[in-house]
Design brief:
This protein is α/β, with parallel strands linked by helices. Helix content is 17%, strand content 30%.
Protein backbone atom coordinates (compact mmCIF):
# COMPACT_ATOMS: atom_id res chain seq x y z
CA UNK A 1 0.00 0.00 0.00
CA UNK A 2 1.47 3.36 -1.00
CA UNK A 3 1.95 6.18 1.50
CA UNK A 4 -0.64 8.95 1.43
CA UNK A 5 2.11 11.45 0.68
CA UNK A 6 3.35 10.55 -2.80
CA UNK A 7 6.52 12.70 -2.72
CA UNK A 8 8.27 10.31 -0.36
CA UNK A 9 10.06 6.98 -0.58
CA UNK A 10 7.56 4.22 -1.30
CA UNK A 11 7.86 0.74 0.23
CA UNK A 12 9.60 -1.87 -1.91
CA UNK A 13 9.87 -5.60 -1.56
CA UNK A 14 13.40 -5.69 -0.15
CA UNK A 15 14.61 -8.66 1.81
CA UNK A 16 15.44 -7.56 5.39
CA UNK A 17 18.99 -8.15 6.58
CA UNK A 18 19.44 -8.20 10.38
CA UNK A 19 22.98 -8.10 11.79
CA UNK A 20 23.02 -8.63 15.55
CA UNK A 21 25.77 -7.67 17.99
CA UNK A 22 27.95 -5.87 15.46
CA UNK A 23 31.17 -4.59 17.05
CA UNK A 24 31.76 -0.85 16.62
CA UNK A 25 35.32 0.31 17.44
CA UNK A 26 35.68 3.68 19.19
CA UNK A 27 38.62 6.09 19.20
CA UNK A 28 39.82 4.93 22.65
CA UNK A 29 39.81 1.23 21.72
CA UNK A 30 36.47 0.43 23.35
CA UNK A 31 34.02 -1.77 21.44
CA UNK A 32 30.31 -1.02 21.54
CA UNK A 33 27.69 -3.47 20.35
CA UNK A 34 24.93 -2.55 17.92
CA UNK A 35 22.26 -4.07 15.73
CA UNK A 36 21.95 -3.23 12.04
CA UNK A 37 18.69 -3.53 10.11
CA UNK A 38 19.00 -2.91 6.38
CA UNK A 39 17.35 -3.67 3.08
CA UNK A 40 19.08 -6.12 0.75
CA UNK A 41 19.44 -3.93 -2.32
CA UNK A 42 22.37 -5.59 -4.02
CA UNK A 43 24.64 -2.76 -5.16
CA UNK A 44 22.23 -0.08 -3.92
CA UNK A 45 23.44 2.10 -1.07
CA UNK A 46 21.18 3.43 1.67
CA UNK A 47 21.15 6.24 4.24
CA UNK A 48 21.15 5.32 7.92
CA UNK A 49 19.08 6.37 10.92
CA UNK A 50 21.19 5.85 14.04
CA UNK A 51 20.41 5.67 17.78
CA UNK A 52 22.47 5.13 20.92
CA UNK A 53 21.00 4.63 24.38
CA UNK A 54 20.79 2.60 27.60
CA UNK A 55 17.46 0.84 27.03
CA UNK A 56 18.99 -2.39 25.66
CA UNK A 57 18.77 -2.87 21.92
CA UNK A 58 17.65 -6.49 22.45
CA UNK A 59 14.73 -5.61 24.72
CA UNK A 60 11.47 -6.04 22.85
CA UNK A 61 8.91 -3.27 23.22
CA UNK A 62 5.31 -4.47 23.07
CA UNK A 63 3.24 -1.40 22.13
CA UNK A 64 -0.29 -0.71 23.36
CA UNK A 65 -3.04 -2.18 21.16
CA UNK A 66 -4.16 1.23 19.87
CA UNK A 67 -0.75 2.16 18.42
CA UNK A 68 -0.92 2.69 14.65
CA UNK A 69 2.26 0.63 14.17
CA UNK A 70 1.56 -2.95 15.14
CA UNK A 71 3.81 -5.22 17.23
CA UNK A 72 6.65 -7.07 15.58
CA UNK A 73 9.84 -8.81 16.79
CA UNK A 74 12.01 -5.76 16.02
CA UNK A 75 10.18 -3.05 17.99
CA UNK A 76 12.35 -1.22 20.52
CA UNK A 77 11.38 1.52 22.98
CA UNK A 78 11.51 5.09 21.59
CA UNK A 79 13.17 4.10 18.30
CA UNK A 80 11.97 3.77 14.70
CA UNK A 81 10.48 0.52 13.40
CA UNK A 82 12.67 -1.47 10.94
CA UNK A 83 9.67 -3.09 9.27
CA UNK A 84 8.42 0.35 8.19
CA UNK A 85 11.72 2.10 7.40
CA UNK A 86 13.79 -0.61 5.71
CA UNK A 87 11.26 -1.23 2.89
CA UNK A 88 11.47 2.52 2.19
CA UNK A 89 15.19 2.33 1.58
CA UNK A 90 16.69 3.10 4.98
CA UNK A 91 19.12 1.20 7.17
CA UNK A 92 18.92 1.48 10.96
CA UNK A 93 21.66 1.26 13.57
CA UNK A 94 20.84 0.78 17.26
CA UNK A 95 23.72 0.89 19.72
CA UNK A 96 23.91 0.02 23.42
CA UNK A 97 25.75 2.89 25.07
CA UNK A 98 28.72 2.18 27.34
CA UNK A 99 27.90 0.10 30.39
CA UNK A 100 24.41 -0.83 29.20
CA UNK A 101 22.90 -3.77 27.39
CA UNK A 102 25.74 -5.71 25.76
CA UNK A 103 28.24 -2.83 25.56
CA UNK A 104 31.10 -2.91 28.10
CA UNK A 105 32.58 0.11 29.80
CA UNK A 106 31.74 2.64 32.50
CA UNK A 107 28.12 3.76 32.41
CA UNK A 108 27.77 7.52 32.01
CA UNK A 109 24.27 8.32 30.71
CA UNK A 110 23.62 11.54 28.79
CA UNK A 111 27.28 12.52 28.91
CA UNK A 112 29.93 14.14 26.75
CA UNK A 113 31.60 10.74 26.44
CA UNK A 114 28.38 9.33 25.04
CA UNK A 115 28.35 12.12 22.45
CA UNK A 116 31.90 11.21 21.39
CA UNK A 117 30.84 7.59 21.11
CA UNK A 118 27.81 8.57 19.02
CA UNK A 119 30.13 10.57 16.73
CA UNK A 120 32.32 7.47 16.24
CA UNK A 121 29.29 5.26 15.57
CA UNK A 122 28.00 7.71 12.93
CA UNK A 123 31.32 7.84 11.12
CA UNK A 124 31.75 4.05 11.37
CA UNK A 125 28.36 3.25 9.85
CA UNK A 126 28.76 5.90 7.13
CA UNK A 127 31.74 3.92 5.80
CA UNK A 128 29.86 0.63 5.45
CA UNK A 129 29.80 -0.50 1.80
CA UNK A 130 25.99 -0.55 1.80
CA UNK A 131 25.66 3.02 3.15
CA UNK A 132 25.42 6.09 0.92
CA UNK A 133 27.43 8.11 3.46
CA UNK A 134 24.46 10.04 4.84
CA UNK A 135 23.37 9.50 8.44
CA UNK A 136 20.42 10.95 10.34
CA UNK A 137 19.20 10.55 13.90
CA UNK A 138 15.60 10.14 15.04
CA UNK A 139 14.02 8.95 18.28
CA UNK A 140 12.07 9.90 21.38
CA UNK A 141 13.26 11.20 24.76
CA UNK A 142 16.69 9.70 25.54
CA UNK A 143 16.97 8.85 21.85
CA UNK A 144 16.24 12.51 21.14
CA UNK A 145 18.47 14.07 23.79
CA UNK A 146 21.67 12.41 22.57
CA UNK A 147 21.14 14.08 19.20
CA UNK A 148 21.72 17.59 20.60
CA UNK A 149 25.07 16.60 22.07
CA UNK A 150 26.43 14.70 19.08
CA UNK A 151 25.23 17.40 16.66
CA UNK A 152 27.34 19.90 18.59
CA UNK A 153 30.42 17.82 17.73
CA UNK A 154 29.58 18.12 14.02
CA UNK A 155 30.36 14.65 12.68
CA UNK A 156 30.85 15.05 8.90
CA UNK A 157 28.43 12.26 7.95
CA UNK A 158 25.56 13.52 10.13
CA UNK A 159 23.27 15.26 7.64
CA UNK A 160 20.05 15.88 9.64
CA UNK A 161 18.57 15.30 13.10
CA UNK A 162 15.01 14.93 14.36
CA UNK A 163 14.94 15.02 18.19
CA UNK A 164 11.40 13.99 19.11
CA UNK A 165 10.45 15.24 22.59
CA UNK A 166 14.00 15.69 23.81
CA UNK A 167 15.36 17.65 26.76
CA UNK A 168 18.47 19.59 25.81
CA UNK A 169 19.71 21.35 28.97
CA UNK A 170 20.33 18.63 31.54
CA UNK A 171 20.23 21.14 34.39
CA UNK A 172 17.22 23.31 33.48
CA UNK A 173 15.11 20.81 31.55
CA UNK A 174 15.52 17.69 33.66
CA UNK A 175 17.48 17.81 36.91
CA UNK A 176 16.75 21.23 38.47
CA UNK A 177 13.53 23.01 37.53
CA UNK A 178 14.13 26.61 38.49
CA UNK A 179 16.91 25.38 40.79
CA UNK A 180 14.64 22.84 42.56
CA UNK A 181 15.82 19.23 42.31
CA UNK A 182 13.33 17.22 40.23
CA UNK A 183 13.89 14.03 42.17
CA UNK A 184 10.74 12.16 41.18
CA UNK A 185 11.53 11.29 37.59
CA UNK A 186 15.31 10.97 37.73
CA UNK A 187 15.32 8.75 40.85
CA UNK A 188 12.69 6.49 39.33
CA UNK A 189 14.53 6.40 36.01
CA UNK A 190 17.91 5.60 37.55
CA UNK A 191 16.58 2.91 39.86
CA UNK A 192 14.41 1.27 37.21
CA UNK A 193 17.22 1.11 34.69
CA UNK A 194 19.67 -0.21 37.25
CA UNK A 195 17.18 -2.94 38.16
CA UNK A 196 16.50 -3.82 34.53
CA UNK A 197 20.23 -4.21 33.90
CA UNK A 198 21.24 -6.05 37.08
CA UNK A 199 18.14 -8.10 37.87
CA UNK A 200 17.04 -9.00 34.35
CA UNK A 201 18.60 -11.13 31.62
CA UNK A 202 21.51 -8.76 30.81
CA UNK A 203 23.32 -9.66 34.04
CA UNK A 204 24.51 -12.86 32.37
CA UNK A 205 26.75 -11.02 29.92
CA UNK A 206 27.31 -7.62 31.54
CA UNK A 207 27.15 -8.01 35.34
CA UNK A 208 28.76 -4.61 36.02
CA UNK A 209 26.41 -2.62 33.81
CA UNK A 210 24.74 0.68 34.69
CA UNK A 211 27.17 1.50 37.50
CA UNK A 212 27.24 5.31 37.33
CA UNK A 213 26.41 6.94 40.71
CA UNK A 214 24.12 9.18 38.68
CA UNK A 215 21.93 10.42 41.53
CA UNK A 216 24.91 11.35 43.70
CA UNK A 217 26.50 13.26 40.81
CA UNK A 218 23.27 15.12 40.06
CA UNK A 219 22.79 16.15 43.70
CA UNK A 220 26.47 16.97 44.20
CA UNK A 221 26.27 19.47 41.30
CA UNK A 222 23.28 21.48 42.52
CA UNK A 223 24.32 24.69 40.72
CA UNK A 224 24.96 25.05 37.01
CA UNK A 225 28.57 24.50 35.96
CA UNK A 226 30.73 22.94 33.29
CA UNK A 227 29.57 19.56 34.60
CA UNK A 228 26.13 20.34 33.16
CA UNK A 229 27.27 22.36 30.14
CA UNK A 230 29.40 19.55 28.69
CA UNK A 231 26.43 17.17 29.08
CA UNK A 232 23.95 19.55 27.42
CA UNK A 233 23.25 21.08 24.04
CA UNK A 234 25.73 23.73 22.89
CA UNK A 235 23.44 25.70 20.61
CA UNK A 236 26.15 27.74 18.91
CA UNK A 237 27.79 24.52 17.69
CA UNK A 238 24.67 22.89 16.24
CA UNK A 239 24.69 23.67 12.53
CA UNK A 240 23.13 20.51 11.04
CA UNK A 241 19.51 20.76 9.78
CA UNK A 242 17.18 20.35 12.78
CA UNK A 243 13.55 19.29 12.92
CA UNK A 244 12.71 19.81 16.60
CA UNK A 245 9.56 18.02 17.74
CA UNK A 246 7.86 18.76 21.08
CA UNK A 247 4.71 17.79 22.93
CA UNK A 248 2.47 20.26 24.82
CA UNK A 249 1.90 17.54 27.44
CA UNK A 250 5.66 17.27 28.08
CA UNK A 251 5.78 20.43 30.17
CA UNK A 252 8.02 19.02 32.89
CA UNK A 253 11.06 17.73 31.01
CA UNK A 254 11.26 17.63 27.21
CA UNK A 255 9.29 20.52 25.73
CA UNK A 256 11.70 23.25 26.78
CA UNK A 257 14.53 21.55 24.90
CA UNK A 258 12.55 21.50 21.68
CA UNK A 259 11.54 25.17 21.79
CA UNK A 260 15.02 26.28 22.91
CA UNK A 261 16.48 24.43 19.94
CA UNK A 262 14.39 26.40 17.49
CA UNK A 263 15.19 29.67 19.30
CA UNK A 264 18.90 29.17 19.82
CA UNK A 265 20.50 26.55 17.54
CA UNK A 266 22.91 27.97 14.96
CA UNK A 267 21.44 25.82 12.16
CA UNK A 268 20.34 27.66 9.03
CA UNK A 269 17.67 25.04 8.40
CA UNK A 270 15.37 24.63 11.38
CA UNK A 271 11.81 23.45 11.80
CA UNK A 272 9.63 23.17 14.90
CA UNK A 273 6.64 20.89 15.40
CA UNK A 274 4.62 20.62 18.63
CA UNK A 275 1.78 18.14 19.01
CA UNK A 276 -0.29 16.71 21.85
CA UNK A 277 -0.94 13.17 23.06
CA UNK A 278 1.17 10.55 24.74
CA UNK A 279 4.93 10.16 24.64
CA UNK A 280 4.74 7.51 21.90
CA UNK A 281 1.46 7.57 19.94
CA UNK A 282 2.29 10.63 17.75
CA UNK A 283 5.77 9.26 16.91
CA UNK A 284 4.32 5.98 15.65
CA UNK A 285 1.27 7.51 13.96
CA UNK A 286 1.10 7.51 10.17
CA UNK A 287 1.03 11.32 10.18
CA UNK A 288 4.12 11.45 12.40
CA UNK A 289 6.02 8.89 10.32
CA UNK A 290 5.27 10.77 7.11
CA UNK A 291 6.74 13.94 8.65
CA UNK A 292 9.84 11.95 9.62
CA UNK A 293 10.10 10.38 6.17
CA UNK A 294 9.67 13.70 4.33
CA UNK A 295 12.43 15.23 6.46
CA UNK A 296 14.94 12.44 5.94
CA UNK A 297 14.05 11.88 2.28
CA UNK A 298 14.93 15.55 1.73
CA UNK A 299 18.22 15.61 3.64
CA UNK A 300 19.50 12.03 3.28
CA UNK A 301 18.23 11.19 -0.22
CA UNK A 302 17.95 14.60 -1.87
CA UNK A 303 14.29 14.11 -2.74
CA UNK A 304 11.90 17.01 -3.37
CA UNK A 305 9.38 16.25 -0.63
CA UNK A 306 8.31 19.88 -0.24
CA UNK A 307 8.90 19.87 3.50
CA UNK A 308 11.28 22.83 3.35
CA UNK A 309 8.77 24.82 1.28
CA UNK A 310 6.28 24.83 4.14
CA UNK A 311 6.31 27.39 6.97
CA UNK A 312 8.89 26.32 9.55
CA UNK A 313 6.54 25.99 12.54
CA UNK A 314 3.76 23.39 12.76
CA UNK A 315 1.58 23.48 15.88
CA UNK A 316 -1.39 21.59 17.22
CA UNK A 317 -3.63 24.27 18.69
CA UNK A 318 -5.36 22.84 21.75
CA UNK A 319 -8.93 23.84 22.49
CA UNK A 320 -9.24 21.84 25.68
CA UNK A 321 -10.40 18.49 26.92
CA UNK A 322 -9.85 16.28 23.87
CA UNK A 323 -8.20 12.87 23.87
CA UNK A 324 -7.73 13.06 20.11
CA UNK A 325 -5.22 15.20 18.17
CA UNK A 326 -6.19 18.83 17.69
CA UNK A 327 -6.12 20.65 14.32
CA UNK A 328 -2.69 21.71 13.07
CA UNK A 329 -1.71 25.25 12.08
CA UNK A 330 1.45 26.46 10.36
CA UNK A 331 3.26 29.60 11.53
CA UNK A 332 6.20 31.60 10.19
CA UNK A 333 8.28 31.68 13.37
CA UNK A 334 8.48 30.97 17.09
CA UNK A 335 7.33 32.77 19.14
CA UNK A 336 4.49 33.50 16.74
CA UNK A 337 5.23 36.92 15.18
CA UNK A 338 1.72 38.34 15.66
CA UNK A 339 1.73 37.54 19.40
CA UNK A 340 0.13 40.19 21.57
CA UNK A 341 2.21 40.03 24.78
CA UNK A 342 -0.37 40.84 27.43
CA UNK A 343 0.10 41.39 31.15
CA UNK A 344 -2.53 39.91 33.46
CA UNK A 345 -1.89 41.56 36.82
CA UNK A 346 -2.37 39.76 40.12
CA UNK A 347 -4.94 41.55 42.27
CA UNK A 348 -5.11 40.25 45.82
CA UNK A 349 -8.67 40.31 47.18
CA UNK A 350 -8.64 38.18 50.32
CA UNK A 351 -6.53 36.25 52.80
CA UNK A 352 -5.26 32.77 52.05
CA UNK A 353 -7.32 29.66 52.66
CA UNK A 354 -6.69 25.95 53.10
CA UNK A 355 -9.62 25.20 50.77
CA UNK A 356 -8.08 23.82 47.52
CA UNK A 357 -10.90 25.44 45.53
CA UNK A 358 -10.36 28.87 47.07
CA UNK A 359 -9.37 31.86 44.93
CA UNK A 360 -7.43 34.64 46.64
CA UNK A 361 -7.57 37.14 43.82
CA UNK A 362 -8.12 37.98 40.19
CA UNK A 363 -5.96 38.10 37.07
CA UNK A 364 -6.86 41.46 35.57
CA UNK A 365 -5.59 43.54 32.65
CA UNK A 366 -5.71 46.65 34.85
CA UNK A 367 -2.77 47.21 37.17
CA UNK A 368 -3.98 47.47 40.81
CA UNK A 369 -3.13 50.86 42.32
CA UNK A 370 -3.07 49.66 45.91
CA UNK A 371 -0.32 47.36 47.18
CA UNK A 372 -1.72 44.23 48.86
CA UNK A 373 -0.13 41.06 50.15
CA UNK A 374 -1.15 37.50 50.95
CA UNK A 375 0.81 34.91 52.93
CA UNK A 376 0.98 31.14 53.27
CA UNK A 377 3.26 28.61 54.93
CA UNK A 378 6.17 27.15 52.99
CA UNK A 379 6.06 23.37 53.07
CA UNK A 380 8.34 21.18 55.08
CA UNK A 381 10.20 18.50 53.08
CA UNK A 382 7.43 16.86 51.07
CA UNK A 383 5.61 13.74 52.26
CA UNK A 384 3.90 11.27 49.91
CA UNK A 385 0.31 12.21 49.22
CA UNK A 386 0.54 15.76 50.55
CA UNK A 387 -0.21 18.81 48.43
CA UNK A 388 0.39 22.04 50.37
CA UNK A 389 -1.85 24.91 49.43
CA UNK A 390 -0.58 28.32 48.38
CA UNK A 391 -2.79 30.91 46.69
CA UNK A 392 -4.76 31.06 43.44
CA UNK A 393 -5.84 33.72 40.97
CA UNK A 394 -8.40 33.48 38.18
CA UNK A 395 -9.38 35.55 35.20
CA UNK A 396 -13.04 36.50 34.85
CA UNK A 397 -14.90 34.19 32.45
CA UNK A 398 -13.57 34.75 28.93
CA UNK A 399 -15.89 36.97 26.88
CA UNK A 400 -14.63 35.29 23.70
CA UNK A 401 -12.40 32.39 22.73
CA UNK A 402 -8.88 33.44 23.75
CA UNK A 403 -5.80 31.67 22.39
CA UNK A 404 -2.64 31.48 24.49
CA UNK A 405 0.25 29.98 22.47
CA UNK A 406 3.90 30.55 23.34
CA UNK A 407 6.25 31.01 26.32
CA UNK A 408 4.93 32.58 29.54
CA UNK A 409 6.48 34.59 32.38
CA UNK A 410 5.24 35.00 35.95
CA UNK A 411 6.74 38.20 37.36
CA UNK A 412 6.32 37.94 41.13
CA UNK A 413 7.25 40.14 44.10
CA UNK A 414 7.85 37.94 47.15
CA UNK A 415 9.24 37.90 50.66
CA UNK A 416 9.75 35.27 53.33
CA UNK A 417 10.46 34.92 57.01
CA UNK A 418 13.10 32.35 56.00
CA UNK A 419 16.15 32.48 53.76
CA UNK A 420 14.51 31.02 50.66
CA UNK A 421 11.18 30.38 48.96
CA UNK A 422 10.05 27.78 46.44
CA UNK A 423 7.62 29.00 43.79
CA UNK A 424 5.53 26.44 41.90
CA UNK A 425 3.25 27.91 39.24
CA UNK A 426 0.48 25.86 37.60
CA UNK A 427 -1.85 27.12 34.85
CA UNK A 428 -5.26 25.47 34.58
CA UNK A 429 -8.28 25.63 32.25
CA UNK A 430 -11.47 25.93 34.29
CA UNK A 431 -14.77 25.31 32.53
CA UNK A 432 -18.09 27.09 33.18
CA UNK A 433 -18.99 24.29 35.63
CA UNK A 434 -15.97 25.16 37.78
CA UNK A 435 -14.14 21.94 36.88
CA UNK A 436 -10.76 21.46 35.19
CA UNK A 437 -10.48 20.42 31.59
CA UNK A 438 -8.05 17.51 31.37
CA UNK A 439 -5.46 16.88 28.66
CA UNK A 440 -3.60 13.69 27.71
CA UNK A 441 -0.46 13.10 29.78
CA UNK A 442 2.79 11.53 28.61
CA UNK A 443 1.75 8.05 29.74
CA UNK A 444 -1.86 8.41 28.58
CA UNK A 445 -3.02 9.63 32.00
CA UNK A 446 -5.46 12.54 32.48
CA UNK A 447 -3.43 15.72 32.99
CA UNK A 448 -5.00 18.40 35.19
CA UNK A 449 -2.99 21.38 34.03
CA UNK A 450 -2.11 23.45 30.97
CA UNK A 451 1.56 24.07 31.81
CA UNK A 452 3.92 24.68 34.74
CA UNK A 453 6.86 26.77 35.93
CA UNK A 454 9.18 26.72 38.93
CA UNK A 455 11.74 28.91 40.69
CA UNK A 456 13.64 28.78 43.96
CA UNK A 457 13.89 32.44 44.97
CA UNK A 458 17.60 32.20 45.78
CA UNK A 459 18.10 31.28 42.10
CA UNK A 460 16.41 34.44 40.78
CA UNK A 461 19.62 35.83 39.25
CA UNK A 462 19.20 36.26 35.49
CA UNK A 463 21.69 35.93 32.66
CA UNK A 464 20.88 39.11 30.71
CA UNK A 465 22.62 37.95 27.54
CA UNK A 466 20.47 34.83 27.28
CA UNK A 467 17.18 36.21 28.59
CA UNK A 468 14.30 37.33 26.41
CA UNK A 469 11.39 39.47 27.64
CA UNK A 470 9.16 36.41 27.19
CA UNK A 471 11.65 33.79 28.46
CA UNK A 472 13.88 34.58 31.43
CA UNK A 473 17.14 32.63 31.58
CA UNK A 474 18.40 32.08 35.12
CA UNK A 475 22.14 31.77 35.70
CA UNK A 476 21.88 29.18 38.52
CA UNK A 477 25.56 29.83 39.34
CA UNK A 478 25.13 31.33 42.83
CA UNK A 479 22.47 31.65 45.50
CA UNK A 480 21.00 34.99 46.46
CA UNK A 481 19.59 34.17 49.88
CA UNK A 482 16.56 36.05 51.11
CA UNK A 483 16.71 38.28 54.16
CA UNK A 484 13.67 37.98 56.45
CA UNK A 485 11.00 40.40 55.25
CA UNK A 486 13.01 41.59 52.23
CA UNK A 487 10.80 41.98 49.15
CA UNK A 488 12.44 40.78 45.92
CA UNK A 489 11.34 40.42 42.30
CA UNK A 490 11.37 36.95 40.74
CA UNK A 491 10.80 36.14 37.08
CA UNK A 492 9.47 32.60 36.84
CA UNK A 493 9.90 30.86 33.50
CA UNK A 494 6.66 29.05 32.72
CA UNK A 495 7.12 26.51 29.97
CA UNK A 496 5.46 27.16 26.61
CA UNK A 497 1.95 26.01 25.91
CA UNK A 498 -0.96 26.27 23.54
CA UNK A 499 -4.56 26.50 24.72
CA UNK A 500 -7.66 28.22 23.47
CA UNK A 501 -9.62 29.23 26.57
CA UNK A 502 -13.17 29.03 25.30
CA UNK A 503 -15.79 31.68 25.93
CA UNK A 504 -17.01 31.28 29.50
CA UNK A 505 -13.82 29.51 30.66
CA UNK A 506 -11.33 30.86 33.17
CA UNK A 507 -7.55 30.71 33.28
CA UNK A 508 -6.48 29.77 36.81
CA UNK A 509 -3.00 30.36 38.23
CA UNK A 510 -1.98 28.36 41.30
CA UNK A 511 1.11 29.57 43.18
CA UNK A 512 2.12 26.93 45.68
CA UNK A 513 5.07 26.00 47.89
CA UNK A 514 5.25 22.48 46.44
CA UNK A 515 4.06 20.32 43.56
CA UNK A 516 0.42 20.98 42.75
CA UNK A 517 -2.16 19.35 40.50
CA UNK A 518 -0.98 17.91 37.20
CA UNK A 519 2.50 17.09 38.49
CA UNK A 520 2.56 13.46 37.26
CA UNK A 521 5.77 11.74 38.39
CA UNK A 522 7.85 14.91 37.93
CA UNK A 523 7.96 15.65 41.66
CA UNK A 524 10.56 17.78 43.43
CA UNK A 525 12.69 17.61 46.55
CA UNK A 526 12.38 20.39 49.12
CA UNK A 527 15.54 21.22 50.99
CA UNK A 528 15.34 22.61 54.53
CA UNK A 529 16.23 26.20 53.52
CA UNK A 530 12.65 27.34 53.89
CA UNK A 531 10.97 24.71 56.07
CA UNK A 532 8.23 26.28 58.18
CA UNK A 533 8.75 29.79 56.84
CA UNK A 534 5.90 32.11 55.96
CA UNK A 535 5.92 33.17 52.31
CA UNK A 536 4.27 36.36 51.11
CA UNK A 537 3.24 37.52 47.65
CA UNK A 538 3.04 41.29 47.05
CA UNK A 539 0.96 42.78 44.24
CA UNK A 540 -0.11 46.30 43.27
CA UNK A 541 1.24 49.82 43.56
CA UNK A 542 4.99 49.93 42.92
CA UNK A 543 5.28 46.12 43.07
CA UNK A 544 3.19 44.85 40.19
CA UNK A 545 3.07 41.09 40.00
CA UNK A 546 1.77 39.80 36.69
CA UNK A 547 1.45 36.92 34.28
CA UNK A 548 2.79 37.74 30.79
CA UNK A 549 0.66 35.78 28.33
CA UNK A 550 1.16 35.28 24.58
CA UNK A 551 -2.30 36.12 23.23
CA UNK A 552 -2.68 35.10 19.59
CA UNK A 553 -5.18 36.99 17.42
CA UNK A 554 -6.73 35.12 14.49
CA UNK A 555 -4.79 35.18 11.21
Amino acid sequence: MADKSTNVSQPRDYKLIVEKDVQIPLRDGTLLYGDVFRPDGGEERFPVIMNIGPYMKDKLWVPPPDLEEKPNPYMNWETVNPLWWCPRGYALLRVDTRGSGKSPGKSDPSSYQEALDAYDCIEWVAKRPWCNGNVGTCGISYHAAFQWRVAGLQPPSLKAIMPWEGRADQYRDQAYHGGIFAIGFIARWANNNTALHLLGKPRAYNPDSFDNNLLWNYMRNSLDSEYWRKNSARWDRITVPVYSVGNWGGSSMHLRGNTEAYLCAASQNKKLRIHSGTHYHPFHSEEGRIDQLRWFDHWLKGMATGIMDEPPVKLEIRTGGSRKPYPVRFEDDWPIPRTQWTKFFLRIDRAGSEDPKAVEGELTRTAPQKLEKVSYRQSAPSRPGTMPRGVSFETPPMTEDTEVTGPIVLNLWVSSTGEDMDIFATLRNIGPDGKDLYEVGQQDEPLQCVTKGWLRASHRKLDPEKSFPYRPYHAHDERWWLKPGEVVECQVEIWPTSMVFRKGHKLRLDISPADGVGTQHFTHFHADYNAGAESTIHAGGDKQSYLLLPIIPPK
